[in-house]
Amino acid sequence: MTATMKIAALCVLASPVTGVGVARAQLQPPPFDATAPGATAPAARESAATAPGATAPAARESAATAPRVTAPPAPPPPAPRAQPPQARAPQPPSDDDEAIDDPKVSRRLGTRIRVQPPAPAPVAKPSPPPAPASPPPPEATPKPALPDVDAAGGLAAGVPAIERPYTPAAESPFEPTLPRLKIGLRRFEFVQIGASSSSDGVAATETFNNVSVDVYPVSRTVRVGLTSAFGWQSGTWLAHGDYFATQTVSLGLQYKDFGRVVPFVEGFAGVGYMRRLQFERTIPTAFWQFGADAGVELYVARVGYLSFAIGYLRPVNGFAKRQQFTSIFVDTWSFKLGIGI
Length: 341
Fold this sequence. Notes:
Elements: H1 2-27, H2 42-50, H3 57-65, H4 103-109, E1 181-191, E2 205-219, E3 222-233, E4 243-254, E5 261-278, E6 281-301, E7 304-321, E8 324-329, E9 332-340
Antiparallel strand pairs: 1-2, 1-9, 2-3, 3-4, 4-5, 5-6, 6-7, 7-8, 7-9
C-alpha cells in the first residue's frame, strides 16, 4: 500500500514538469535556414512588424507561438537539354466555326485539320483498236558460201576438204497385196468323138479356149481359189462347135518375199457340162477335169499384177453309147494367162 501511494505521488509530480517541457518546445521557434526559398532575415521580419498596418503584439505572439513546418529543400531542376529548332508547318487559319473556345482543350487537341475528300479519278477514254499488223517482209535466204578456189581449180591452201560418202535413203521393201481376184484365159487340146476321119482310126484332136474368173477367199502363203470357166472349140462358135462350162476348186502355195514377183503352184479339180455336136445333132455329155499349174504373178502395182502359168491337164468327157456309159480322156499341157488384183 505504501509503495503504490509512492508511485502515484511521483506520477502527479512528474506530469506538470512534462507539460512545461512540451509547451516550451512548442513555443521555441524553428531554426532559420537562409537557403530555403521564401526565407527572410530576422531584421526583415522586425521591419515588417514595425511597418504601418502591422498586426498587434498579441497577434505576433500567437503567430510566433504557432508551430511551423519547414519543407525539405527541393533538388535543383535539371538543366534543359538543348533541342534543335523544329520548323513547324504553317497551319491554315481556322474559321470561326472550327475554333476551340477552351484554351486547355485547344492546347491538348491542337489545331483542327480539315480533310478534303479525294478528287474523283479521271475516266480513261477507250483506246482505239490496234491497227492490223502487217506481215513482216520475207527474209532473204543467205546463199551458201562457196569454197575458195585457187587458179589451178582446186581448193585454196589451208582449207581442208571434207569428203563424205553419199548414202541414199533406204527404200522400204515392196510389199504386194496377195491375189484376191483374177481373170484368165486358158488354152488346151482335147479330142473329138464319133467316127474318125483319120487314116489310122485315131480320134482327131480339138483345141479349146476357156475364160475363167478366179476368186481367192483365202490368200496368204496358202491360198484357196474358186474358178468358174466357160470354154469353146477353137475356130467355131456356139452354133457350129463344142462348148463346156465348169466349176473348179484349187488349193495352192505362194511366196511373196521376192518383191514384185510372187511364184505359186496349185492343184485343181472341177466338174461341168459339155455339149458335143455330131452329124448336126447335139449330144449332151458330162465333163470333168483335174490338173496342176505352176507360174508367177508379176506385180505392176501394189494391187495389180499379170499372171503366167503352165500346167498339166487331164480333161475327161463321158457320154452314153449303146446303153452304156463311155468316157474318153487325154493328157495334155495347158497354158494360162491372167490379170488380177
